[in-house]
Amino acid sequence: MMKELKGRERSSRIHIGDSLAGMEMCLTSDDIIVITDANIRKLHSHAFPEAEVIDVEPGEGSKNLRTVEHIYEKLLELGADRQSFIVGIGGGIVCDITGFAASTYMRGLRFALVPTTLLAQVDAAIGGKNGVNLRHYKNIVGTINQPDFVLVDMGFLDTLPPREFRNGMAEVIKSAAICSRSLFEYLEDNRENILGLDTESLGRIINDTVDIKLDIVSRDEFETGERRKLNFGHTFGHALEKLLPYSHGEAISIGMMIAAKMSVARGMLGSEDSERLERLIRDYGLPHKAEMDTDSMIDALGKDKKRVGDKVKFVLLNGIGSAEIVEIPLDELKKV
Ligand code: ADP
Ligand code: ZN
């Protein structure tokens, strides 16, 4: 299935359910450079296109400017120029770094992304955001630039560790919670098929989640309003990720539950809907609460990029499948 994301600068094609082995057809350059990580290379390089390969270390620890510099140097050594075409094959980390390196080297080379984790397939590779961390600030350096295409090959998910799969499910649940009651119900009713990696079920949830993101991003590519809804669960989630050893999906699951409880407290959401969200999160093996110290949480929230003065913008729910952006003063947060 092919979808199109019309960006202001460039458009991007998104192929869902195609195989990496058939990618050659999408490539118009004969000077292809693959960026990947050592795990993916070991498991899947047999399906890679004919290309030079640049490896980055697996893990969040390599999502920084040193890795980007390493890539620039390799590109120099390989004689990459404006005719070269970069293909990032990997999880969110590889996709974010590849997009940034390709968008800045020689002021921008053409590139494509082949996301290999569920998280990257439904989120990180879609929407054109890329970038790296600096100190403890996540994604604070980067660009918004669409790849030529994104190829979602669900076959990669067969080798993905279960914890990584659950991580991606958190973003799927998030998208359903903010935008799609029907996806939410599908997730409730098809847990076994989805966790069993049934192709049809995976296709359905990836497709719907990508549609939700494309719909929001096409209306708000540069994040001035609507796109913020995608941050449901992320304000608290990012703070939690900094303070405790949670994965992104685990942290936003807890973040979603905090936001849902705030929504209930403000009279926007019925408590039965908040309980439904909690049940879904638990059904997919994700955590719904954390023990933690309020002061360090508020302190971390104060450092959030999305903060405006002493207020933080929160995405709250006013129903299953419906979200609203609300500004809440830091003081009021302490009470919650
Ligand atoms: P995310 O998409 O969650 O940001 P990362 O890029 O950090 O993920 O990848 C998470 C881990 O999973 C990394 O160690 C990566 O090498 C590994 N990984 C990514 N895709 C696959 C896959 N299809 N099969 C096995 N391991 C994978
Ligand atoms: Zn996220």
Q: How many helical stretches? A: 13
CATH architectural type of the largest domain: Up-down Bundle
Q: How many separate domains?
A: 2
Order of helices and strands: EEEHEHEHEHEEEHHHHHHHHEEEH
CATH homologous superfamily of the largest domain? Answer: Dehydroquinate synthase-like - alpha domain
Largest sheet: 7 strands, mixed
What does the average pLDDT come to? 92
| Spatial ordering of strands, largest sheet | 1-2-9-6-5-3-4
The CATH class of the largest domain turns out to be Mainly Alpha
CATH fold name of the largest domain: Dehydroquinate synthase-like, alpha domain
Task: Indicate the structural class.
Answer: alpha/beta
Describe, in plain words, how this protein is organized in 3D.
This protein has 336 residues and is an alpha/beta fold. It folds into two domains: 2-159, Rossmann fold (3-Layer(aba) Sandwich); 162-335, Dehydroquinate synthase-like - alpha domain (Dehydroquinate synthase-like, alpha domain), CATH 1.20.1090.10. The protein has 13 helices and twelve strands. Strands 1-2-9-6-5-3-4 form a seven-stranded mixed β-sheet. A three-stranded antiparallel β-sheet has the order 10-11-12. It has a two-stranded antiparallel ribbon with strand order 7-8. α5 (162-179) runs antiparallel to α6 (181-189) and α5 (162-179) runs parallel beside α10 (248-265). It is globular and about 60 Å long. The mean pLDDT is 92. Bound molecules: adenosine-5'-diphosphate and zinc ion. Residues 123, 171, 234, 248, 252 line the site of zinc ion.
